[in-house]
Amino acid sequence: MTVHPELRAAAEAWRADDPDPATRDEVTALLAAGDEAALRDRFAGHLEFGTAGLRGLLGAGPNRMNRKVVIRATAGLCAYVLEKVPGARERGVCIGYDGRRLSRELAADTARVCLGLGLRVRAFDHVVPTPVLGYACLTSRAAAGVMVTASHNPPAYNGYKVYWENGAQIIPPSDEGIAAAIAALGGLDTIALGDLDEARADGRFTIIGPELERAYLDGVRALMVHPGLPRDITIAYTALHGVGDRLARQALAEAGFSRVHSVAAQAEPDGAFPTVDFPNPEEKGAMDLVLALGEEVGADLVIANDPDADRLAVAVRDREGGFVQLTGNDVGCLLGHYLLDQGPAGDRRLVVNTIVSSPMLGAIAAAHGARFEQVLTGFKWIANTALRLEADGAARFVLGYEEALGYTVGSLVRDKDGIGTAVVVADMAAWCKSQGRSLLDELELGWRRYGMYLSRQVSHTLPGSDGAARIAAVMARVREAPPAALGEHLVIARADLARGVRIDRDGRESPLGLPPGDVLAMDVEGGHRVMLRPSGTEPKIKFYFDVRVTIGEGETIEAARRRGDALLDALSAGLAAATGM
After folding, report:
1. β 312-317/323-325 pair status
2. Does residue 222 form part of some domain?
3. The domain that contains 303 carries what CATH number?
4. Which of the following is catalytic: 151, 357, 358, 455?
5. Sorting pLDDT into bands at 50, 70 and 90, what band is 2?
6. Which domain covers residue 1, as residue numbers?
7. Are residues 316 and 338 part of one domain?
8. Contact 128, 100 (CB under 8 A)
9. pLDDT tens sequence across 381-390
10. CA-CA distance, 560 to 549, in Å (whole number)?
């Protein structure tokens, strides 16, 4: 097979200054085999630097995660930081990495570029949870931070997550500025690389010591609402082959939870993830081993971190004694209720979730006189909104969550924190037990108090350029001809985040006050909501449905849920008719 000359030239040029012999050999083998499809997949495009930094399959070429891509990304990041952040050279960059394949090497390359461009570096010399790196950025007042992780993606992926000087993930225009700085770079030979040993000797490269983890654990312990209550609950835990096991178990032990059992087969970091196909605790089968352990030890509570320990999954006993996994909305609303109902009072309390997360948090906040904000999808928006409102003196941040199992309590970390949240969930479970209830009981009491809010997500995977065109066509169709009703349920207002407006049934427009995004939402009579959003990381279009059911006096939870499920079915069918999907 022959390879198109332009494609061959691009591959050979990339190989010429690739510092990694493994990816050089990969290119050589593909060229020798004449595998034009594989070469085109690696070289016809490039990984886009965005608000999530970089994330992609490991491999050779600009459309893969590899050492050359990370060196270039770091050079662009440093150039932008030096331009925008006062005192950046001395404040430096904090660097951490997880247990995935090539993470340690990519972190070392990141450090070398930072040093070569004149910035101090504070780095971990061992794998570390993402929230601990975020905490290090915040407490050291770093100019920026980098965490090498692909979070809960499959084993073939890695990623590069960037924090700004405020300790939160970057938002526009920083992502655009960094991307422009990367695009302006020349070849790899124009990027200066520092020597780690020399920099360590002269103090420009510092290893972050155990005192940082000690301070983080002290901060986690302070998040508890009822630390003095008995800790007589049994917990089954898994790190899913990630980096959370040691610190999560230590944090729980220091919080008084002595009956914690960890899945031994998944406790150590292993980038091959040998016992799970997809190390995301939301995926079917990912929690099988920890649920089995929960049965074996008679656990009251089952919890799981994802591989970089920034997310948390929770399962509890149901009425029949088996385990039921709570949704991200269930856990987020339980936390909101617990922290506002049992935590310190005040008139400036703030809770935040994303626009695709449950509106129930808003009802909880209203009942407690707290402020509620919804932001664009992505935890970066939660953290940056909380920082802005706190800086204005308008709020004291209590909780942020997104439905994809991401939560943070208080201002210890300005990002998702699966370890700190695990301790607060355990504290909440212990409090419930002291009241003669379970977490499931507490959730059901919340439904009776605030309304039963039920959510459903439907995703359509449409790969390739044809799929992207179809996704765009669906969004355009609903924008141009919005449905007046979904089945028998009237649409009373709609919002277009791309235009930044809300439009009521009479056509009156009002500003949304949110950054632009490719999201469409419909408010449906009865307090229900439907939303459409193309995924930012996968070839998918996602539909989100939220309904609210008022539980009648004497009505069972099961009967109310059946009514809610019927509403979800009706709205789902109505949107399918409106979109042709």
Report:
1. antiparallel
2. no
3. 3.40.120.10
4. 151
5. confident
6. 1-15+23-41
7. no
8. no
9. 999 999 999 9
10. 7
User: DSSP string covering 483-515, please?
Assistant: -SEETTEEEEEEEETTTTEEEETT--EEE--S-
Dmax over CA atoms of the chain, in Å, equals 75
Q: How many CA atoms lie within 13 A of 76 on its CB side?
A: 26
Alpha carbon 61 to chain centroid, angstroms: 26
Residue with tokens 């089945």: 487
Same domain as 160, residue 36: no
Q: DSSP for 98-109, please give it.
A: -SSTTHHHHHHH
Which residues touch 501 (CB under 8 Å, ≥6 apart)?
Answer: 495, 509, 510, 511, 512
- Are 570 and 457 contained in the same domain? yes
Is the torsion defined by CA of 209, 213, 215, 216 positive or negative?
positive
Q: Which of 77, 82, 195 has the alpha carbon at shortest distance from 147?
A: 77
Give pLDDT tens digits for 73-92: 999 999 999 999 999 999 99
- Do 180 and 240 lie in one domain? The reply is no
> How far is it, in rounded angstroms, from Cα 111 to Cα 114?
5
Q: Are residues 36 and 93 in the same domain?
A: no
Instruction: Give the pLDDT confidence score for residue 505 in this predicted structure.
Output: 87
- Tokens coding 99: 């247990």
Contact 93, 206 (CB under 8 A): no
- Strands, E, within 385-430: which ranges? 396-402, 406-409
Please indicate, yes or no, whether residues 427 and 533 belong to a single structural domain of this protein: no
Known catalytic residue: 459? no
Contacts of 508 (CB under 8 A, 6+ apart): none
Residue-wise pLDDT tens digits, 89-128: 999 999 999 999 999 999 999 999 999 999 999 999 999 9
Q: Which residue has the tokens 């409106």?
A: 578
Cβ neighbours of 330 (radius 10 Å): 22
Structure tokens belonging to residue 113 = 């570029």
Q: Which pLDDT tens digit goes with each residue over 193-245?
A: 999 999 999 999 999 999 999 999 999 999 999 999 999 999 999 999 999 99
Among 290, 325, 360, which residue terminates a domain?
325
Whole-structure pTM over 0.90, yes or no?
Answer: yes
Number of domains in the chain: 5
How many residues make up the chain in this entry? Answer: 581
